Amino acid sequence: MPPRNHVAESVRALLAEEQVAPGDRLPPERELAARLGVSRSSLREGLRRLADLGIIESRQGSGTYLAPLDLGDLFEVRLRLEPLAARLAAQRRGEEDLARLADALAEMRGVLGDPQLFGEADVRAHAAIVEASGSLPVRVLFAAIADLLRHSRATTAGNDDLRAGAVSEVAAIVEAIRDGDGDAAEAAMRDHLAHVGASLSAA
User: Please, is 136 exposed, middle or buried when counting C-beta atoms within 10 Å of its C-beta (0-12, 13-18, 19+)?
Assistant: First the structure.
């Protein structure tokens, strides 16, 4: 990996760890460079890479910010990626995958009353479905949007009815995967995402 790409990934990982949200200002360059153990010139190269990718943006006289999240764009990616992941998971899942899915669903139910914890559990449940797909390209693509998913949960996880509905919908997906029914798993994921899309439109 080219040095600036390595630094860019390190910056992205740090921002995710610090839970910097879209629209938030990044720490000063001096602080970022010190925390990552790189020179400021190397850091600037990494930041330029992130700017080229549209992940961060510079504002004259104000600083550097994590770019605002376009939930519509994110949803379009999910709509194409996750139904495929669910279908593949139904076709390829193993016993470890089924156990991981059961644990993820149980976690969602266990934190239903806590919006923040529920949002995190929901992302892990979707990640478990993607992992069960056994597809490296699907896993890589999902990993690329996982941080954005965590931020988007702030829009949907605060609604009690939406959280309860999400549990039922994810349970239907998991059941179809367990039954090895690819058609049903894909359809259940599409139904779930349709409700997500409706909630985003209403937000």
Answer: exposed
Of the candidate CATH numbers 3.40.120.10, 3.40.50.300, 1.10.10.10, 1.20.120.140, the domain formed by 3-66 belongs to 1.10.10.10
**Annotation: CATH topology of 71-202:** Four Helix Bundle (Hemerythrin (Met), subunit A) (1.20.120)
pTM score: 0.73
Cα separation, 180 vs 187, whole angstroms: 13
Query: What would the pLDDT profile of 179-195 be if each residue is shown by its tens digit?
Result: 999 999 999 999 999 98
Q: Which of 4-8, 21-25, 57-61, 138-142 has the highest mean pLDDT?
A: 138-142
Per-residue pLDDT, averaged over 68-95, amounts to 91
Using alpha carbons, list the distances in angstroms from residue 183 to 11, 16, 60, 87, 153: 40, 34, 51, 7, 27
Strand partners, 56: 66
Given a contact cutoff of 8 angstroms between Cβ atoms, the answer to whether 126 and 173 are in contact is no
Question: Positive or negative, the Cα torsion across 77, 79, 84, 90?
Answer: positive
Confidence of residue 6 (pLDDT cuts 50, 70, 90): confident
Minimal CA–CA distance to 156: which of 123, 99, 196, 192? 196
